[in-house]
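Hi R.,

Here are the chain sequences for the assembly we discussed:
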Amino acid sequence: MYTYLKEICVGTWSLLVGLAITIRYFFQPVVTVQYPHQALPMPPRFRGHTELVWDEKKAGHKCIACMACQRACPSGCITILGEKGEGVKQKTTLASYKLNFTTCSLCGLCVESCPTKALDFSKEFNLAGTTKETYVYDLLKRFEEKYS
Amino acid sequence: MSVHATSHIGETFVLNLGPQHPATHGVLRIKLTMDGEYIAQAEPVLGYSHRMHEKMAENRSWHQFLPNTARMDYLHALAFNLAYVCLVERMTGIEAPERAQYIRVITTELNRIASHLVWFGAFVLDLGGFSPLLYAFDDREYILDLLENVTGSRLTYCYFRFGGVYNDIDEDFVPGVKDFIKRMRSRIPMYHSLVTKNIILVKRLKEIGPIPAEMCRKYGATGPVARGAGINFDVRKHEPYSLYSAFDFDVPVYPEGDSMARYMVRMDEILESLRIIEQAVNRLPDGSVMADKVPKSIKPPKGDCYQAVETARGSFGIRAVSDGTSTPYRMKLRSPTYSNLSLFAEASQGMLLPDALALLGSLDLVIPEIDR
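And here is the predicted structure of the full complex:
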């Protein structure tokens, strides 16, 4: 009988303690951000899809179409076409850089394997589209559009 | 004691729990043969998210398998990363610098706390309490922000590399971790008074879903499930890998074997992880985070190797066989939850359905890791 009554008292008290905690937190400042009206700054190391990097020295991208990223990619989502440049120092120049973002797992092995550091991550995370083709990026075209 | 079936009319019916049931956390289906409200037989049906990770390893290079490890256990991805990296380092003889080892320990333990917090929130949610989930996710957000600033991703990390880590921590990381330790230590007593002492939770967990030590041994259960049954086994303590032998921490063990014991083990583990992180942050050495002369193409010598690590759910092991080429010959992944779930069929016999759901929640299942 004694333990039964004690359990009722202790049990009710435990519920009241819990209620007090929730009520206390009710009057504390909000911890969430009202997205999309407010947004947090993206951390500098955020890994979005890859992007060709602008190089001041070359006044263009640094890609030499060596295919190192294409070989390093575990999901095979990079397709590079190189063409023989005439009158250029390099043997090959980049003709097209297709990134199939639908199969990319954002591991970053392409960025690491690049010998000329021509690739970097973008900060884009707000991606939406209605067709699969939206996510097959032509990085060279994007680069030319961005810096033309 | 848990209540056992008493009435036997001899009439049973089949109840499908999942694969879309909120309490099965993903795509686990349990075929229950019910005798009224009591479970006569339970049969877990697996494989809904089987992606052939073992086979995938056989047709890609050692480097290319790195992102796969994080896709198995999405809650404690860094421990899976660590297991694979430690394995390949042992096979090839590459040694990561001390600073990288410390960073690995700090980030893995932070990830373990995040994993336990998700379990805590989801478990109490299974039992019908909603608000603890929000408190847990508030704390978890701090960890995710810390890890995002360093690794660049929030869930499926691919941060460790053979011979070190991807990049060094930034200057905000150490103060951030110190702040988090302080915050988390003040939150744990709040969790205990909000949830642990709550009479409804106590009534639903205490002496419910007993898993004796014998059953754990029979099915190969590890982690908090085994420690909640009084088996003192933690890979970090008993087969130390990385730098874990250098830290002072205890292994929480509860002998009761009920759902409450497993709950308490995880809550205590959060505090022990904080202890490890605190020691590691205070002793963090300077230096490089990547070993010199890591070959671009990894070709481990012929032979095989097994590496086990302690993840948030138990002992995860990889056995890799190398034939001296740049692709693994065989990669066997031993996932902890697979063994932990196996005992559910035996443990849940004769239990009430709501009690079995409490037992299922206390096993802390991550389905992609079971299915691999």
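The mean pLDDT of chain A is 83. The radius of gyration of chain A is 27 Å.

Let me know if anything looks off.

Best,
T.
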